[in-house]
Amino acid sequence: MTVDPYLPGHGDASYTVRHYDLDLDYALENNSLKGQAVLTIEALEDLSELTLDLHALKVVKLSGPRISKHSHTDGRLRIRLQQPISVGKTTKLTVTYRGVPTPVPDKIGEAGWEELADGVIVASQPGGAPSWFPCNDRPDAKAPYRITISTASDYFVVANGQRTAVRRRAGRTTWTYEQSEPMAPYLATVQIGRYAEHTIPASVPLTAAVPPARRAAFDRAFADQPQMIELFERLFGPYPFGSYRVVVTDDSLEIPLEAQGLSIFGSNLLSRTWDAQRLIAHELSHQWFGNAVTLRRMRDIWLHEGFACYAEWLWSQESGGPSTHERAEEAWERLRRHRGSLLLGDPGVSDVFDDRVYKRGALTLHAIRLTIGDEAFFELLQTWVRRHSGGNVSTDDFTALADELGHSEVADVVDAWVYQIALPPLP
């Protein structure tokens, strides 16, 4: 069954996962991963079989409900049950597995567990979660997580949520993190490196895991991050998670990425240039738009990337750079000169992360702001986050909320910018 045509071969709509408990053991010297995953599964329909996503790794054992047979091919672990699970009922399924984790190839691009020069980065957007744990790989199958990982003691481990335990024994250290807020599988992450962690004074608990030799460069490049948090809390509402972390790899990375409660940057972005600063703001803003409030289907990616791009423009004005409107006018002019066409509300697999999605998505928000005014616009954004935090959304949900708040004209703006190919003029 195809749950999302942008990610064929991922997800199973017949059930959801209510909790993940992941117990991992990783050997850096040969990139070897051993894992035991306990999934609390709820049937969304009468369930006689189910499918998990697990790429490249070998299933060693299955336990929990009575299983008549299973197969594991092409990254899909298909399980037939001896006794059906009735709709609404839950059960616990334990999968023991091992192997060498590798990124998951999809039409959108590779994602998942990758080796660094000296460590590990897990960048799972959009379909890389099965590279390191069995899951129902759908963005609308959000769940709390407990992640425990053991590895060599001279490495520092970061994962989602609050760190609740660190145990050292015989040259190995076991780290435990609890992610209590619901999280989409692609946002689950583990980062392993020779990092030192330090705390940054801010309005929310803020830490950074950075190679010691990069500390001075980090302090300069990320000096404005507390002010970014203050701005986004003022405009979008309270920060949605218990803490925020930044990880900086010693390697250069082509792009930064966000996971729930943290963001990961390459050392090549330790800079005060606008291109670096806008990305620091961009990844931070995803905690509200993408992580707390998550799309239901990939075609609505503008609800993540358009919002995060608009946050860049808001920070530009706040930090003394070009105003938000000037950034919008510049982006509009670039889109006007671009000869290719793109439907923002369904850009297609090949263009889902195209820069035009980011810019036209941000312009959609700016057009709404110009139409309904600043006070109504930011009330809409704050209500959007407050109403849907921990859940999943679509573009129709956004226009419905605007209508509920008395801004029926937003539907016309969204229709012109999201569902028509022609580039509208800015209001």
Automatic annotation (TrEMBL):
Gene Ontology BP annotations: peptide catabolic process; proteolysis
UniProt enzyme class: hydrolase
Catalytic activity: Release of an N-terminal amino acid, Xaa-|-Yaa- from a peptide, amide or arylamide. Xaa is preferably Ala, but may be most amino acids including Pro (slow action). When a terminal hydrophobic residue is followed by a prolyl residue, the two may be released as an intact Xaa-Pro dipeptide
InterPro entries: Aminopeptidase_N-like_N, Aminopeptidase_N-like_N_sf, Peptidase_M1, Peptidase_M1_aminopeptidases, Peptidase_M1_dom, Peptidase_M4/M1_CTD_sf
Gene3D superfamilies: Neutral Protease Domain 2, tricorn interacting facor f3 domain
GO CC annotations on file: cytoplasm; extracellular space; membrane
Domain of life: Bacteria
Cofactor(s) listed: Zn(2+)
Pfam families for the chain: Peptidase_M1 (PF01433), Peptidase_M1_N (PF17900)
Keywords carried by this UniProt record: Aminopeptidase, Hydrolase, Metal-binding, Metalloprotease, Protease, Zinc
Segments forming domain Peptidase M1 membrane alanine aminopeptidase: 224-417
Domain Aminopeptidase N-like N-terminal: 18-187
Record keyword Protease present: yes
Protein EC: 3.4.11.2
Molecular function (Gene Ontology), one example: zinc ion binding
Stated family: Belongs to the peptidase M1 family.
Protein name stated in the entry: Aminopeptidase N
Species whose genome carries this gene: Rudaeicoccus suwonensis
